[in-house]
Each structure stands twice: as structure tokens, then as C-alpha cells.
Amino acid sequence: MALKRVFIWPDTHCPWHDKKAVSCALKALRAFKPDHLVLTGDFLDVYSLSRHDKSPSKIMGFAKEVAVAKKLLERIDNAAGSAKRHFIMGNHENRVYKYLMSKAPEVYDMINVPGLLDFERFGFSHFDYLDHLRIGNLILAHDIGHAGKSAHSQSLNMAGMSIAIGHTHRMAMVIEKKLQTGELITGATMGWLGDPDAMKDYMPASKVKRFAITGFGTAYIMNDGTPILVPVPIVNGSCVLEGKLINGR
To answer: Which fold, 4-247?
Structure first.
């Protein structure tokens, strides 16, 4: 029986995404021909609705943010082939609901991210922020309450089974075994596809340059459900996927 193939599309922060990196990821997605495509949240930045102070140089109306994201989602849809499509909400998508609860509770039940991004047309199933998707013995989530350098390891310890998260913009992986059964379990985070300059509102530029890793991830689900996860960094607009160079430029 063939391995199930999963393409893990990480934090993108539209419209503040890295265009070269996204172009590379789209070519990789088309070449990989996955059975499942999973967007692990923070696809939208929702900067215009953020409670944080905003840079005048980044002011963009929410309608424009959504329009840019929908165009990219359409490109992703075109590259995904016959894959089952899944979208996990991140804390940035959750900004929409926080804004509505605070500023416009009267229309809270009328506006939602799946509707704004037209998930029905693109065929995406969706999962709420802090919820997760399971494929075989792999959990995929935006986060389950952890952030920072050790988030993938902490998430593995909490989940008790293999897990791939977003949220941190880092690329890291830890592989362990269950003591009683010897089952291989992995905790991973697969980088991001955002523009590093856009992160200056969130953390020092030196930290962004050091730890925010551009890339995506893949997973192969074995017949017994065990996932084999592969982080794929993007370097100068190119990546190596299954031994082949993919140039996104």
C-alpha cells in the first residue's frame, strides 16, 4: 500500500508574505502531488484588525488583505491537484473573531473566515484555532499552547504522539520513541513563508534573521499510521524536495 503524502503549508501572513518563497512552495506543492494539503494557520495576518499599535507604512484595509489572501489561496488550490484540502485557524485568523466580539458583536454570527476566504469554493475543510487535524498518527495544529524555541518539543510531550505545529516561524524537529511500545514519535515545526521585514512589529530584527526560517514541510504516513516528517527549508527562493532542486524564482 502506498504511503499517504501530506504537504504542510506553514504561517504565511498574507498580505505580508515572501513572494519568492511562496512561488517556490507552489512549485513544490505541484511537484509533490500530496494526498493531503494542510495549511497550519496564520495564513492571514489580519494586521488591520490587530489590537497592537500599527505602523503607518503597513496600513491596508481589511478588505484588501482578504482579497490578496484569496488570490493566493486560489493559486494554492490550482497547485494542489486532487489533494484533500484542510485549513487550521491560527491566532491571527482568530483576530477576526476577537474584533467582532469587541467592536461589532451584532454581526458576529454573520462574518467568519471560511466565508471570507471562500473555503466552500476551494473545497477546504476547516478547524478552529486551538483545534487540530489528525492524519494517521500525526496531529497537525497551529499551536496547542506553546511558543518559542522548544514549542515543538513541548507540544510533543503534551500530545503524547507525533505533532506538527506552526506559530513559531522556526524550523525544528525532535524524534523520540515511546518507552513501552517503541513507537516512533516526532514533534516538528516547519518554518514560515512570511516576509521577515513584516515581523519587525513583533520582535527584534536580529531575532527574526536568526530564528525565522523560510520553508514548509512534508510528511509520509506509513501503513501503520507512523508519520515520517521532513522539514524543507527554502534558500534564496529554491528548495530541495525528494532529491530534486526546485527553483521558485
So the answer is: Purple Acid Phosphatase; chain A, domain 2 (3.60.21)
